[in-house]
Amino acid sequence: MKSPLALRVLGTAALAAVVLWTVVPLIWMLMGSFKSTAQVTSPDPVFFFLPTLENYVRLFTGANNLSPYLLHSVVAAVGSSVIATVLGTLGGYGLSRTKMKGKASLSFWFISTRMAPIAAVVLPLFLMFRLAGLVDTLPGLILAYLSFNLPFAVWIMSAFFDGVPPSLEESARVAGCTPWQAFWHVALPLSKAGLVTTAVLCLVFAWNDYAFATIISGPNSQTLPIAATQLVTQTGVDWGQLTAIGTIVVLPMILAGIAVRRWLVTGMTLGAVTGE
Question: Long-range CB contacts (< 8 A, 24+ apart) of 93-102?
């Protein structure tokens, strides 16, 4: 039987391996974005170099101007996340507080739509969006993201509201609050962790999406992941700009996760417990 010390050493070693596996590629990508073209394409790894903003300058100037793609990504990701969080909170509260037969099946139906592969719904969505004139528009892209984000938001917020005792809202009702006031002043503040978790996860999905953006978007609504693919051409790959655009895509999500890490960890843990 292994000693506790040996188990701790093995656990620490496994954790270190996972951290290195995750962090080293990100650090290498960040370093590559500040290298010159010769350094980033050098057959020998270059660890010590004079940083340059050449790759970032080229991304935002000339034919490869990234500004429209960045604006489209921000509008689509933030817009869909805000709408999904607001509607998901209201829907999750209603699902949590409603007493009816088949409630568990209804909750599973919500999350099952989120588990469906994107490839199975892209074609029907494209046909509907084309008939509605939403192809190559930001509203169409936001609605496409909502098709996956909203069911997830309803499901996870329902789990959080299940963890809020209804007796607290009943006490507020006795004190003279309306149902809306009881929800706004009692249930919602107690579900802050769920709100942050839902918003961040919806934002990450929309920000990183490639499948919907490939089918639904066009010249007037293409996002950052689509812009990255344009750097891979038949003549070669512009690794300098590719690492720069990769940094621009990844860094905001990392910073957002760090900024709300306390709420995010608490929310994901509590949601897992209450959802059982």
Answer: 93/157, 93/158, 93/161, 93/183, 93/187, 95/154, 95/158, 96/157, 96/158, 96/159, 96/161, 96/162, 97/161, 97/166
Domain ranges of the chain: 66-274
> Residue-wise pLDDT tens for the chain (276 aa)?
456 777 888 888 998 999 888 888 888 888 888 888 888 878 888 888 888 888 888 888 866 688 888 899 999 999 999 999 999 999 989 888 888 777 767 777 777 777 777 777 888 888 999 999 889 899 999 999 998 899 889 988 888 888 888 888 888 888 888 888 888 888 898 888 888 888 988 998 899 888 888 888 888 888 988 888 877 777 777 788 888 888 888 888 888 878 777 766 665 555 444 444
Q: Which CATH code is given to the segment(s) 66-274?
A: 1.10.3720.10
C-alpha to C-alpha distances, 8 to 11, 18, 21, 23, 52, nearest whole angstrom: 5, 15, 20, 22, 42
Q: How far apart are CA 38 and CA 46, in angstroms?
A: 10
Q: Of 78, 36, 42, 75, give the one whose Cα is nearest residue 58.
A: 36
d(CA 87, CA 75): 18
Amino acid at 268: M
Separation of alpha carbons 88 and 150, rounded Å: 6
DSSP 185: I
pTM: 0.81
Terminal Cα-to-Cα distance of the chain (whole angstroms):
33
Tokens for 174, please give them.
């006795």
